[in-house]
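ESCALATION

Customer reports they have been waiting on this structure for their group meeting. Please prioritize. Original submission:
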Amino acid sequence: ANLAIGYFAILGAVVDGIPSPSFRPGIIVESVDKGGRADLAGVKPGDKILQVNDDLIQGDGVKQFVSDVSENADLPLKLKIQKEEGTEEILTVTPTSKGRISIKVKSNVDLTKKSKVASLGQALEMANGQYAKLINDIVFGYIGLFQGGTAEIAGPISMARMGGNTISTGDISETLLFFAALNLNLAAANSLPIPGLDGAKVAGLLIGLLAKGRSISPKVQEAADVAAEVSALLLVFFVFNVLLSDIGRILPIDAVAESLEERMSDFVGK
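Update from on-call: job pushed to the front of the queue and completed.
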């Protein structure tokens, strides 16, 4: 059901006209955690980060910036900053041992409406392309999840904020695309072979088909029960970490922890 709802939401967005991004140089600083590395270096909300060391920030820019920061833990980075009044300066920021500087950034982008589709065939073709792209992004997102943790996964709090921000724009196509992405992500999560989800039921049916009516040996059944219990525990652990990461995006947890660590170091040094 989620897959079908997602597709028709994308089709509606295509009919309305999907925005086409036009990227400008750099990325925009949305917020800076007080007491964090970026704050101490002089980075302010509204600043544009144009360059990290010798790397110009181009296109979407956000992933490139996050990668530059995370790969240079405890190493000084020179950020070329354009202030809101238009002046430029170089600020030196040293990420924490976890590769963070406690800021939130977004792409420097303008959205312009594409011309609306001329026929149903064109609409279906564009919808199919957008649908395939979203599914591809979700698949690679899950691959990245298993490789690199939950830091970039949005939980219910972040999703609610993103939804509210999208709806507040009043753009029908943007709202429909967000709704489609939400449904496709729910479908992907529901397909995981974890007890209580549809993926576990499908896995059970496949095992039954492979067994071809033969009774399953006690050892196999025991192993399946253990696997189910472990997967359930992993799901609880995953949800907990996503929620913790979610809260960390709203509250400056990293900056507070960093400040406490520095104060403790000073205290021990004395």
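Sent to customer with the following note: The first strand starts at residue 19 and ends at 32.
Escalation resolved.
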